[in-house]
């Protein structure tokens, strides 16, 4: 039984501010990502070999030849569909089932609960035992897919260095660094490294790996936000250069 208190909460602080800011941030990023996904343009800078992570890998016939680092085995997509529709389900799946993001959007969007010591508006609680929330159990599999996409992003970042070094190269490298830190700090990654071990002393390498990932895991929330925001920053920078709005600052040609 829940505590029988007539008021929704006895808190007097601005408890509503963190979930409101979280909701606003996630909404803005979602709108930006949706616009760029279906724009289908300004994702490749041929001169500097910059490819935005939102369009990597680019595998359909409508991809620009230079942006198709792994060929174009897929046909053109019909209607408003663009190349990112192939990778978006895996990236969204990884983020949406992430333990931190669950907390973020459960509180900010579903008000379940909106904050500590604040009653939620739902009459009952079923947890993650029913569809669609039971799909949260697929997180470890989305982790595998996201890890593969991360390796492709790393390849793209280093491939761009073959055309010289500019500000865009630094942006791409910082982006893959943040994505790697976020991916490695994932709870599933931590479990893969040290889960199911009964004696750490018998597995020193896995124990060391588990301890290092645990340090990253303590910063999982910060890495989740930093990597998500910087993906948008990276995409925006490449889009501005590709459209001719700005010129890439070059250090080595």
UniProtKB/TrEMBL annotation:
Name of this protein: Succinate dehydrogenase [membrane anchor subunit] (Succinic dehydrogenase)
Membrane-traversing stretches: 15-35, 80-101, 141-161, 167-186, 223-246
UniProtKB keywords: Membrane, Transmembrane, Transmembrane helix
Superkingdom field: Bacteria
